[in-house]
Amino acid sequence: MLELEEGNIIKIIIELLDGNKIQILKLQKCSSEYFLLIGSLIKNIPLPNISDKTVVVDQTVISCIIKDLQYQDIMRQKLEHIETIDDMLLKELKQRTTGNGGIVFSSVIPEITSLNIAQLKLILDEYKLIIDNIQKNLQKLEAHQIEATSVNVSKNLEHNQLTNTLIMDIIERHDLISQLSLKYNFKRKKDVKGVVLKLINVYTMQSERDVFNQTFEREINNCQDNQFENNQENNIEFF
Known about the structure:
73% helix, single chain
């Protein structure tokens, strides 16, 4: 592997993080537009008359679809949390290029990149599951239709490949960053607990914190007091 000077490593990581900010914005935009498209397609499905015996079933299915469509907001928040973590590291590295930065988040770059990759994979898995659920529920709705001219939305509903491509691109950038990690073993041993506490405060959803706990399991187990547990209980949204 080609050996790079610290200054060059920092510049490359900054470029990768700046590129990720652009990709995350694109991902938020395309996913939002796709969920809006699904919503507009659903409006084309003729619903049964209120006197129809299937209306109870249909209303339950519709409620499930509406709930799944709200995942767009959850996905946006999770992407914002990843962006926040990246921004914390990015700010520190940019300050270091001017000789004013310290060593906090750059002491745990491998963990930060592993954490973001795990969160992105979770988002992708959740996204695929949500789209599959919407498709299945649309099929239930369409099964109750008696009109031969009804719009078959579920048949044409597929995963948005651009969403998958963007997520995988962001994951690849984080993987490249991990390979360029700056080594600060002395700093890690001294301040890793404080860094972990700062990172966990970014996450407000239980599913995110589950991923966090898996990534930082060793550091969490090494905490001697209950400060970490108290932080875990604050501001958690259960998703």
